[in-house]
From TrEMBL:
Entry protein name: LacI family DNA-binding transcriptional regulator
Limits of the HTH lacI-type domain: 20-74
SUPFAM superfamilies: lambda repressor-like DNA-binding domains, Periplasmic binding protein-like I
Chain spans, region Disordered: 1-20
InterPro entries noted in UniProt: HTH_LacI, LacI/GalR-like_sensor, Lambda_DNA-bd_dom_sf, Peripla_BP_I
Annotated Pfam families: LacI, Peripla_BP_3
Keyword check for Lyase: no
Alphabetical keyword list: DNA-binding, Transcription, Transcription regulation
Domain of life: Bacteria
Top-level taxonomy: Bacteria, Bacillati, Actinomycetota, Actinomycetes, Micromonosporales
Amino acid sequence: MSSPSGHRGPPSRRRQSGRATIGAVAQAAGVSRATVSRVMNGLPTVDPELVERVRAAAAALGYEPDGTAQSLALGRTGVVGIIVPDLGNPVFQAVLRGLSSAAGDRDYRVLIADSHERAEEEPILAREIRRRSDGLVLCAPRMPDEVLRQVATVRTPVVLLNRRLDGLGVPTVSVDHAHGMRAIAGHLAGLGHRRVAYLSGPANSAANRVRLATLRTAGTGRFALHQVAGGAHFEDGHDAVERILATGATAVVGYNDLVAYGALARLAELGRSVPGEVSVTGFDDIPFARYANPSLTTVAIPLEELGRQAWNRLWAHLAGEEPSPDVQFAPELVVRHSTGPAPVAR
């Protein structure tokens, strides 16, 4: 029988040499090699008390599992992927924070791909990410419905974020864009605006289509709506202001906060009073919306929570559990200083 001092010696030598084995961890923790393997691979079927014992033993021995061997044995990489249309947009940055934080709690890492608003790139990126990850989040995909159906129904677990498609059969976390736009329409109509311009987003954005259609319907009988081509970035809003003013609109609804912010900047350059002459609203409530001059009226979306909820559903797939039901978040109107009563006609 080994003496206590003899038992402590090998872990010290292994820790110095870095050659600790899974068998040594199992012996130190008083469990089987299979249990150590399940703990190291993050499987949710191990008693929490055993998890703590195994991790403590592994730390004491300096044991580090072979990541390549783990992946081969389990068919897992410890990585999930996400495709976003524009990584420079604070909306998607916030979603990523929520996703990566929640994934990190399960010792997963997030592989990020930016399609740069090019819908044709998304299926290519999806194929590449699937080779390197265990699951995929499609965030606000721009691809057509028929292509999305093909991409989303491949064997790798997929979660759809910020877009809905009936009959797709994959977990979905979405935003009720119509609810948010109805709130904006009611706010502007209540302020007496009778001519409103919608500064539209990317043509291949499903959210843009819903927001425009809702604003058109909600404005019927309340105000005339003028659609002005825009985009998704500051410069798109900045460059569209002269065309907006040419419509005679007294209020501008931006596809998102970025284009609204760009419009505010150009209106200031032209010496136009906001909201005295023109009211401006955005959509999303990104962090600096409140710091615009004037502060931006918008609708707020719980962006980081979208990312967390997407991870929860992806993890359920990976753990062999039933994903939670689809969830849709309703944006809330946030009234600030960029909107006011319609100017009195002279």
